[in-house]
Amino acid sequence: MAEGMPSDAAWMAHALCLARHAAARGEVPVGALVLDPAGQLLAEGANGPVAGADPTAHAEIAAMRLAARRLGNYRLTGCTLFVTLEPCAMCAGAISHARIGRLVYGAADPKGGAVEHGPRLFEQTTLHSRPEVTGGVMAEEAGSLLRAFFRARR
């Protein structure tokens, strides 16, 4: 990491802020952000399926859509995606299609995750692109936020 560049934990803390904003709107607390290849913040996203009546409005998708618009390219080659929860199969597929270079996520998702759980999408030989993956960054904080959100709804 270049001197003066924020750490993975600093970026994940930013994504957790986005997740808290999602929770305040009644959405599952997941936040995401995309850094450009130089490590600068390009786009942010938070879960929004409920408000948007859109099952695809996951934080990762929102952040990647905005990043692609800002770059004027559907390929996000060399970009880094931070997300507070292990991506699901839909989001992992989109990450591969977008050619994200690096994925950093917080909490593991044994039920719905598709990176280290479930289909382990990035291990499939049919994928055209696989990001470098770093999991477990601020996992306890991300997991606590999710547990508190669902506990309050039971």
Overall description:
- The protein is α/β, with parallel strands linked by helices and 154 residues long.
- 38% of the residues lie in helices and 17% in strands.
- It contains five helices and five strands.
- It has helices at 8-24, 49-52, 59-71, 89-98, 139-153, and strands spanning 31-35, 41-46, 80-85, 102-107, 132-134.
- The protein has a five-stranded mixed sheet.
- It is globular, with a radius of gyration of 14 Å.
- 42% of the residues are buried.
- The model has no long low-confidence stretch (mean pLDDT 96).
Compose a concise summary of this entry.
This protein has helices at residues 8-24, 49-52, 59-71, 89-98, 139-153, and strands at residues 31-35, 41-46, 80-85, 102-107, 132-134. The chain is of the alpha/beta class and 154 residues long.
What is the CA–CA distance across the termini? 42 Å
Tell me, what's the shape?
globular
Number of distinct beta strands: 5
Strand coverage percent: 15-25%
The structure class reads alpha/beta
> How would you state the average pLDDT, rounded?
96
Q: Over all CA atoms, what is the radius of gyration?
A: 14 Å
The ordered H/E elements are: HEEHHEHEEH
Largest sheet: 5 strands, mixed
Helix percent band: 25-40%
**How are the strands ordered across the major sheet?**
2-1-3-4-5
Count, helices = 5
Could you give the topology of this structure?
Layout: H1 8-24, E1 31-35, E2 41-46, H2 49-52, H3 59-71, E3 80-85, H4 89-98, E4 102-107, E5 132-134, H5 139-153
Parallel strand pairs: 3-4, 4-5
Antiparallel strand pairs: 1-2, 1-3
Helix pairs in contact: 1-5
